[in-house]
Amino acid sequence: MRFVAFLLVSIVTAACARSESPPEERNGSAERPNIVFLLADDLGWTGLRSFGSDLYETPHLDALAESGVKFTNAYAACTVCSPTRASIMTGMYPARLRLTDFIAGQNRPYAQLEIPNWTKRLEHKYVTVAEALGEAGYRTAHVGKWHLNGTGEKDGDPVDHGFDTQVLKPPKTKGYFLPEGFNRDGESGSDYLTDYLTDKALKIIDQSGDTPFFLYFAYHTPHTPIQGRADLVEHYRRKVRDDAVHNNPKFAAMVGSLDQSVGRILARLKDRDLEKRTIVIFTSDNGGLTQRYGRRDLFTENTPLRRGKGSAYEGGVRVPAIIRWPGVTTRGTVCDEPIISSDYYPTILRMAGVKGNPEHNKAVDGVDLTTLFHQPDSSLKRDLFWHYPHYHAGGDSPYSAIRSGHYRLIEFHEDQGVRLYNLANDLRESDDLSEQLPDQTAKLRTRLHQWRESLDAQMPTPNPNHDPSRATKVQKQKSQR
Prior knowledge:
Blueprint: E1 7-8, E2 25-26, E3 29-30, E4 34-40, H1 59-67, E5 69-75, H2 81-90, H3 94-97, E6 113-114, H4 129-135, E7 139-144, E8 165-167, H5 193-206, E9 213-218, H6 230-237, H7 249-271, E10 278-284, H8 314-317, E11 318-324, E12 333-335, E13 339-340, H9 344-352, E14 354-356, H10 358-362, H11 370-374, E15 384-388, E16 399-404, E17 407-412, E18 418-422, H12 438-455, E19 461-462
Parallel strand pairs: 4-9, 4-10, 5-12, 5-13, 7-8, 7-9
Antiparallel strand pairs: 1-14, 2-3, 5-11, 6-19, 10-11, 15-16, 16-17, 17-18
Helix pairs in contact: 5-7, 6-7
């Protein structure tokens, strides 16, 4: 059942004296900011030059970070993509949605644990951010990767979840290159997927008119297959150093194309005189992929973080994040307070001056981040949680985790073993403190269990077909487009 009752709201925040108030009703129509949400795919925490890369060149994203708020402790709600995307759309933890793995998932039929019967689609009973904004008068557009409709589902595309317009990856596209002879309807342009989708996003901006718009540009890059544009691959091949952490020119080229795309988006907003009334948000859906089926030489690195996509560690979930709200955020602001992808839903509604659906909002796990724009040193006074009851080719066995202050505790479900790390002085998660700090370990483990129980989180169970000799065998499932 869809929620349909939406209200508009105008609130003046006295605590933030220098901020502009949410949009107010004027002559029967609300003047609201445009919102552009840019989501990279598998871009790790150090995937931008301004976040630490020693090879990738990202001048446009670096300038965006300098012009707004740079979040140094930003997290994806999951170590893989679909659950994080669902958290952005709904403001809810993946465990609450029961959408806890990438769609359609990856099964290991002989592993020690049997994964739960999780939900392989974004259910229509939830009010997406596009639906909430659309009800308030926004034009809403999705460009790029959706990855939230179930295999064979007929009404699971972005337009079925509140978006007025959708531009998806063209059929028969192999990796990042459009099919030969692809019909562009008379348009010319690059045959590289990122460039093509950027062209479509620019057209949406051009057609915006005076109506406020929400553009959700969900990039495919730098997700596998690792295929860079030839000119950028050659550019980075000449720059690779043996002593660099990042040394894959093809991956660097993909990040370079991402940055060029962002630059084109920002330039078009400026050219259309939309820059000063457009909020721009940039982040990634999970950490960078560092290994798959034991191979580590094909992808990227998240150093100094441990591991990457699919894993239980920081490298799997910590991501870059930037928010620029002209007239509200201050240039060069750096915020170290931990945030998570489910926070974007209530934050976007707050910035747009939209109340949203009251029933849906009761279950929203994210919190409004706007206080941090003006008080970046303040604390949101909450814990963050992850629940991944699955196996992954690049990761670990099923796990849950909690971050509380500087401490991060991981519980692995195969043996109920725990690891405790103090991220303040051990960002690499190399020094397990669980035995040295038994009281802290017990306290955080109890909180983690209470959180799982409050959401009725699905748990893996003992697998009656467990076969140690075949435990890592993967049963492939039909993947979603």
